[in-house]
Amino acid sequence: MKRIRVIPILLLQNNGLVKTVRFKKTTYIGDPINAVKIFNEKEVDELAFIDIEATVKNKEPDYNKIEEIASECFMPLAYGGGIKNLEQVKRIFAIGVEKVIINSAIILNRNLISEGAKIYGNQSIVVSVDVKKDFFGKYNCYFNSGKNKIKTDFITFVKEIEQLGAGEIVLTSIDREGTFKGYDLELIKQVTKNVNIPVIANGGASCVEDFEKAVNIGGASAVSAGSLFVYKSENRGVLINYPSQNELKEKLFSKIQIK
To answer: Predicted confidence band at 225 (pLDDT cuts at 50, 70, 90)?
Structure first.
């Protein structure tokens, strides 16, 4: 039986916890500290927070809020949002965060990946790759919370990320994000076939069975979700939740095809 990481990705806006659908339709969920405390009790593998307005509004990361979250978090913590330079990365790590998630900086300051990986280790530098299909079904990468398209070819782009020294890719389907329609397995397969670093599937998960498909069909090394962990069901009643370890063993870990 092989264990994989199952990671809640939580979105911050104005110091509150929010959820989006296809990177739009923001809904307030509650207090992020309360969510962290619940996830502590649920024995979550890893937790990620992304401030979705920091880059859009050209703001610094909210170090006070990050420190508050880190002080309550009992599991490895990743943070993304508004990160543009090494000084910010240094400050975030000093707070107690284990990984930084970089998105827009891959366009604005590409050296940040290689320099960060050199100083802190590849495992500490995660790149968020946000992907959306165009009218013709072609995958394109976006940055700045999905507002700006990256001109580089999709596969060329993910290969460059690996070459620069990123330790992991968080691969998000913008088309599926927040929809409960399941992961875009073809998207995951295209990336995992072209890079050798871990790929974390994100966007669309509706159940533990979707995790298994992302790993066995898509080739993902880990899985993540947002709506699944903050809503009770597709009816979107707020409930911070996480599968029990027994459920994960039965429906996920025991079914992973070891390659």
So the answer is: very high
